[in-house]
Input
Amino acid sequence: MHRRTFVGGLGCFSLALPTACLPSSTGWAIEPFKRPKPGKLKLSLAAYSMRKYLAPRDDTPASMDLFDFVDFCFQQGLPGAELTSYYFPEQVTDEYLWKLRRHCHLRGISVSGGAIRNDFCSTDEQRVADDVEHTKTWIDHYAKLGAPAIRIFAGKANDGEDLATTLERCAGHCQAVCEYAAQRGVILALENHGGVTAKAEGLLEIVRNVESTAFGVNFDSGNFRSTADPYAELEQIAPYAVNAQIKVEIAPNGKKEPTDLPRVISILRDAGYSGWVALEYEASEEPLEAIPGWLDQLKALVD
Output
């Protein structure tokens, strides 16, 4: 079956996709994006970097909200802020989204992207159906905020199930939500986030089985932890990147060490990636103290 013929038959997709509707992994190969080189980069900060302050702990309320986070990005001289869904109010209203978008605009801050939690590999049909609806809800929210891309996850392998079957299921669900994302003008970015995407091979198997202009890779520099050469893995996924997150630590074979930031930025530029590069700080030093210094280093590399 030709890939476009398959897309034309997407009527078979529902929230819980039957196996017969899932794409075949044989003979399909989406090409890397054709982009001018070197890429042009813009610096942002992921709200997840401030999770210590944005999320309540035990009986202690959060000391920062997303409006404060945007103000912090302004103080750091950043043009962008990545807004993670975890730190929005439990009930997200249009009024809240409008106030937040207006606040960003008045600070001269672009919403560089969004991030959500989801699992498209599970064999639990109701769980996946809920996550599909969750993804669509946040596509709507982020579209109203003007975010160009949303970071999504794949999920984990299932005990007793062939990995190829799991990857096909995941690709099918990605296909379904991408159709919705395209209608809202948002790109979904699949992250190398462990599980079936712990190595570039698994991530790209999913990406190559989705036919949509609203799909690509969220390049996370610190998440290839089960390989001796994570930089080589990053080189494989960079040509498909539509969003990028930079961590200050990298972990060959699971052992943390400082990230070679110039090398990571070069990998992105050499692949022709142009767009947002968000610092996603996860190291142990106090975020408010450490992040400004890391941003200074990245500014020198991005400019």
The first strand starts at residue 41 and ends at 46. Residues 36-302 form a domain with the TIM Barrel fold (CATH 3.20.20.150).
